[in-house]
Amino acid sequence: MNSAPGQVRIRPLSELDISRVVAIDERLTGVYRPEVWERRVGYYIRRDADGCPVAEVEGKVVGFMFTDLRGGEFGLEEVSGWIERFGVDPDYQGRSIGRRLFETAQAHLLARGATVLRTLVEQEDQDLASFLRAVGFKNAPLTALELRADGAGA
Amino acid sequence: MNVEQSTIPKKFHDAVLHWQRHNFPDYDLLPQNWEKYFPNEPAFCLCAKMEIGMSDTIEVGDKQGAARMLKPSEMGEDAAKHLLAIIRAQASTEFGSIQQHEMTLARAPEDEDRFWVLRVMAEELRHGYQMFHMLTSQDWSSVSRQSAEEMIEEILSMRTGSHVLDAFNVDYDSFVDNVVFAAVIDRVGKYQLAMQRVCSYKPFAQSMPPMLREEAFHLAAGVIPLRRWVQRAAQGAELVTMQAIHKSFNKWMPRGLEMFGHEKGGESNIRFGFKNLKNAEAQSQYYDECKKMIADLNQRYLRARFPKLSPDEAESLAVRLLRGGERHQGVSADDLIELPEQRFFRRKGEPAWTMVGTRGETFADVESYVAHLRATLPEPYLASRDMKQYVETLREVVSGKITADQASKRMPNLKRVGGVCPCSNSVRWIVEEPPATNGPTARAPNAKADRP
User: Fold this and answer.
1) Closest partner residue to A45 among B216, B231, B299, by Cβ?
2) Are the beta carbons of A12 and A50 closer than 8 angstroms?
C-alpha cells in the first residue's frame, strides 16, 4: 500500500528496500556498495525488522534507520538500543523524516526493554551530531578508541 | 513484541520430530552451525508462539466490533469449517515446503545460501507446529469429523504430490528453485499471514505476528541470493544464468497467483472476519510487489554489467530493453528477467486453461502453446509428471472432453503416497504410556506403534 501524495509513511524494513537503501547511501556517500547493504539488510531482517523503520513517500523509500537491541557489550550491561545505520535521501531532508524514523525506532526499542539508546558518530559529521542532539541524545561518559592494524591515524 | 511460547502435547510433538527425521534429515546441522551463520541470534525453538497484547475486538466482517472468539464452538458451524480448512491448508504448506527444499538443499552453490535455506526450513517446521497447536489446543471434532490425531496423521502423511495446494506438489529441479520459491511462494505466505492478523478467532490471529517476523527472513533468503546471482551472471559467471532464474520465475509465479484462491472469491473470509482482503485485491498487490522485485533484480544486473550507469539510468534502460526490443552494448530483453503475465500457465482461477503466454499473447492451439511452454519453462521441469498431466488435461479441455472447471478440480492429481511412514508399515505415533497390565496400549485410532 502506497502512502497518499506527499505523505510520509513509516513501516518496517523489507528485503525489497535494498535497492533504495543502496541508492540513498550512494547519494550520501558517493559510493555504490550493494553487497554491503544486502548483507546488512539480511542481518537486520533476521534480528528485528520492526526495529528498522523505513520512510516511504508515494511508494518510494526515502529514508531508513537500522537499530539493534543488545546488552553486555563493552561492560554496558543495560539492555541498549543501538542506532546503527541511518540515512535520508537528500531530496527529502528537512521534512522531519529523520525525526519520525527515530521516534518509531525509539518507541519499538523501549517497548522491547531498552533502558538506554546509544550510537556512535564520526567527529566530523556535525549534521548527524546536531540531529541526534535535537532528538535528545547527550554526550555519553565513554570515549571511542581504536588501534588501526596499519598504524595509521596514530 | 511480547510472545508466549508453548509446546504441544508430547505425542504430537514427538510425531513432528519423527516426521522431521524422515523428511528433514538436515535439521540437526542447524544448531551445530547456528553460531557460524547467525551469531548472537536467539537459538531456534521448535515451539508455538502466541503474540500477547492483541486486541480483543473483531476488526472486519459481520461481527466487526464484537469480542474475538476463543473457541471453535463460538464461531458457528460454517465459519468453524471454513477456518479449519484454512488451518489445515496452512499446515500442509509448511510441511510441504520442507519436503521440496530438502531434495535440492545440498546443491546450494555457497554454504551460506544453504544455511539460510536450512533456517527457513526449520522455521517452516515451526509454522507447521504452530498450526498443530491450533488443531490440538481446541476441540474441532464437531466440524472436522476427525480426532486431532487423525487430522495430524493426515497432514504428516502428505507428500509432494498430495498436498492441498498445487505450489507444494511441484518438485524442485535445482537450488535455483529453493531460492526463487522463497522469493515467490513465501511472499504469498507473507500476504496470507498479514491478512490473517485480523482473524476473528483470537488464537489464530495471535499466531500470525511471530510467523510474519520469521517469514520476513524467508523472503530475504530468496531475494538476497538472487541479487548476488544476477550480479555474478552480469560479470560472466557461467553456472547461474539470468535465463535459468527467469524460467524458474515462470515456473513458480502461476502457482503463487493461484494460492490466493479464485479471483472472484474471498467474500466468506471477510464476512467471517478471517482476512481483510478479497482474493483478487491481495493477488493484485502481490503481483505488483513481484514486479518491483524483478525490476530490482534487473537493475542490479545492469549496474553490474555497466558500472557507470546511475540508478535512474539503469532503471530506464531496463524499461527500454523490455519494451522496445532494443539492444544496449550486447544486452537485450533476453538477458533480463521478465515477470510472466498473470494468466500465463494457469490451471486454477479465472484464467485457468486459457493458453496465454508470458507476455499476454494468446494461443489458438495446444501444440503451439506447448511449444511456448517448452521455450519458457525450466528444461528439467518439462519432463516432470506435473507437466505431463497439465498438458494432457489441457488437451482434454481444448478438445471439449472436459470443462475448464472439471480440469481445475482434477489438479493436483499426483498423489503418490499417503498415510505411510517411510520407516514402517504405518504412522508416526509414539506410544506414550507403558503397556497396561490388563488392557491394550493406548494408541491413536487406526495407528500402529512406531518401530523404526
Assistant:
1) B216
2) yes
| CA distance to partner chain A, nearest, from residue B66 (Å) | 27
Q: What is the DSSP letter of B329?
A: T
Task: Write out pLDDT tens, residues B97-116.
Answer: 999 999 999 999 999 999 99
Q: Tell me, what's the pLDDT at B438?
A: 44
User: What is the distance between the alpha carbons of residues B77 and B54, in angstroms, rounded to a whole number?
Assistant: 25
Looking at the complex, report in whole angstroms how far the Cα of residue A152 sits from the nearest Cα belonging to chain B: 30
Inter-chain residue contact A38 with B307, CB threshold 8 Å? no
pLDDT classification of B319: cutoffs 50, 70, 90: very high
The last residue of a domain, from among B269, B297, B325: B297
Half-sphere CA count of A108, side-chain side, radius 13 A? 23
- Which amino acid would we find at residue B232? R
Contact A34 B227 (CB under 8 A): yes
ipTM of the complex: 0.92
**Residue A125 contacts B, CB cutoff 8 Å:** no
A8-134: CATH number: 3.40.630.30
Q: How far is CA B31 from CA B26, B98, B114, B411, in A?
A: 10, 17, 14, 38
pLDDT band at B421 (very low <50, low <70, confident <90, very high): low
By the CB < 8 Å criterion, does A32 face chain B? yes
Residue B111 located in a structural domain: yes
A:B CB pairs within 8 Å: 59
Instruction: Establish if B322 belongs to a structural domain.
Output: no
pTM as predicted: 0.91
**Are the Cβ atoms of B300 and A15 closer than 8 angstroms?**
no
Cell of B323: 519494451
Range of the domain at B435: 420-452
Q: Please indicate, yes or no, if residue B318 is contained in any of the structural domains.
A: no
